[in-house]
């Protein structure tokens, strides 16, 4: 098998779906992932999606588009998407490529992404 | 790069580390993962490790040993390990192979694994 046959697991944690990308995402996998996330949102009524890319060392325009489409699909189903764990080098490359991922919120790690979605940071004293 | 160079991300969620395995784990990756988990436990004083294998369709004796060693290492650092999301077919194969993963707790999915580690089914997180 190798990197081909498998799918990317979509985990549910409370009201949030968590997806951890590792290595490269091939065409078929991206479509499958988008489908899985969308149907899981509809089924389980989650309100947020966290996509961890700390294991990804290259975000190209293909992956950028996949992420944006996942976020757009989730948004249509009333779920917010946060991209977590982007490596600094990836951020630099994205800016150089002019891919600033509009419409995607980001967080330094999954824990902060969860807090962002929960709307109440653990140490936050200020409430709206 | 491809399936080779990358590492498996170890995410922290509250008091728990979460690792999502996808596809195959090569020798070097297994060692790296074990090292990462152990050092993260020591650094961040987490009390549990959840390894999600819902994206894994074959658990052989190598992976079985890796998982057992991760759990043993975590146990020495006072963290409990739960294996989450095992596919039914994987469970059947493991039994046929006589690999019943002694010393590893299991849960149907990550959410239940978190609950198991929290020891309290509703509110997994420490509240102030």
Task: Please describe what this structure looks like.
- The structure is a homodimer of 128-residue chains.
- The first copy, chain A, is of the alpha/beta class and 128 residues long.
- Chain A has one domain: STAS domain (Transcription Regulator spoIIAA).
- Chain A contains 4 helices and 5 strands.
- The first copy, chain A, has helices spanning 27-44, 61-76, 88-97, 110-118, and strands at residues 10-13, 16-22, 48-55, 80-84, 105-107.
- Chain A has a 5-stranded mixed β-sheet with strand order 1-2-3-4-5.
- In chain A, strand 2, helix 1 and strand 3 form a beta-alpha-beta unit.
- In chain A, helix 1 runs parallel beside helix 2 (61-76).
- The first copy, chain A, is globular, with a radius of gyration of 14 Å.
- Chain A starts with 9 loop residues before the first strand and ends in a 10-residue tail after the last helix.
- The model of chain A is unreliable at 121-128 (pLDDT under 50).
- Chain A binds chain B through residues 1-3, 5-9, 11-14, 18, 20, 22-24, 52, 54-58, 85, 109-111, 114, 122, and chain B through 1-3, 5-9, 11-14, 18, 20, 22-24, 52, 54-58, 85, 109-111, 114, 124, 128.
Keywords:
disordered C terminus; STAS_dom_sf (chains A, B); Bact_StressResp_Reg (chains A, B); five-stranded mixed beta sheet; 5 strands; 21% strand; STAS domain-containing protein (chains A, B); alpha/beta; globular; STAS_dom (chains A, B); homodimer
In summary, what is this structure?
Chain A is an alpha/beta fold and 128 residues long. Chain A contains four helices and five strands.
């Amino acid at each position: 098998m190798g990197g081909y046959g498998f799918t990317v697991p979509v985990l549910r944690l409370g009201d949030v779906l968590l997806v951890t990308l590792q290595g490269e995402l091939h065409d078929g996998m991206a479509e499958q992932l988008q489908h899985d996330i969308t149907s899981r949102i509809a089924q389980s009524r989650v309100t947020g999606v966290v996509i961890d890319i700390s294991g990804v060392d290259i975000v190209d325009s293909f992956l950028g588009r996949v992420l944006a489409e996942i976020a757009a699909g989730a948004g249509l189903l009333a779920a917010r998407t946060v991209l977590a764990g982007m490596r600094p080098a990836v951020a630099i490359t994205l800016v150089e490529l002019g891919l600033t991922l509009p419409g995607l919120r980001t967080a330094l790690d999954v824990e902060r992404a969860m807090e962002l979605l929960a709307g109440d940071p653990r140490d936050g004293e200020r409430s709206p």
